[in-house]
Amino acid sequence: MTANLVLLGPPGAGKGTQAEILRERLGLEHLSTGDILRAEMKAGSELGKKAKEYVEKGELVPDEVIIGMIREKLLALPKEKGFLLDGFPRTVAQAEALDELLKEIGRELTAVIYLKVSWEVVRMRLTGRLICRNCGAIYHRVNKPPKNDMRCDICGGELYQREDDKEEVIKQRFEVYNQQTAPLVDFYRQKGILFEVNSEVSAEETFKQIENILNSL
Ligand code: AMP
Questions:
Q1: What is the DSSP string of the chain?
Q2: What is the average per-residue pLDDT within 11-23?
Q3: Which CATH architecture has domain 4-118+172-216?
Q4: Could you tell me the residue ranges of all domains in the chain?
Q5: Is the pLDDT of residue 1 over 80?
Q6: Above 90 in pLDDT, residue 149?
Q7: Which site in 108, 126, 133, 161 is 20 to 30 Å from 168, CA atoms measured?
Q8: Tens of pLDDT, residues 104-115
């Protein structure tokens, strides 16, 4: 099926993990603003240098930078391809800009999937999270340890802890989420396209809930 989805939820809710499953099984284009920013930071581009100041402190990169980035990606997307937004929108201004942009390109959101998870689970997930430097695969020191110490099971790449997954930054990111992003739950509920999912269970169980929602649409 094709669909245009937003994955909403705090850092550590499992947006990246679910996005990967949805991309694989439904063939949706995965657009992650966090991944795009990290790639720009790695490349040392102007955008990357600007973003770094915010990302490393757990703060949001200014709306106009992010909106410009997503605009470019959505305009380039083939008409028949569904998309999956992960980590965007994160503010009401971004959500309003997205509405405008979708109108402009003649598309609509099919559903906003809200991944609900408590602070305790977020803290546990993020402090243990490991990412492959090469292919971006996600692991966890306890819940999903790699077979070989600090090496990716898939490509053998080196695993690392994101700078902003350090304990002191996580709390800040969660607070920023509560203040700036949580209002989007009501924003989309009022539009009648918000669907809640319990994301404290396993990735596969979370995916089943999303699949049920998509099948019911
Ligand atoms: P993520 O990988 O989604 O957790 O994003 C990592 C960091 O990138 C965030 O803590 C922000 O600093 C920045 N970022 C990602 N997406 C956005 C966005 N939509 N608006 C502002 N900043 C963002």
A1: ---EEEEE--TTSSHHHHHHHHHHHH--EEEEHHHHHHHHHHHT-HHHHHHHHHHTTTPPPPHHHHHHHHHHHHHHS-TT--EEEES---SHHHHHHHHHHHHHHT----EEEEEE--HHHHHHHHHHEEEETTT--EEETTTB--SSTTB-TTT-PBEE--GGGSHHHHHHHHHHIIIIITHHHHHHHHTT-EEEEE-SS-HHHHHHHHHHHHHH-
A2: 94
A3: 3-Layer(aba) Sandwich (3.40)
A4: 4-118+172-216
A5: no
A6: no
A7: 133
A8: 999 999 999 999
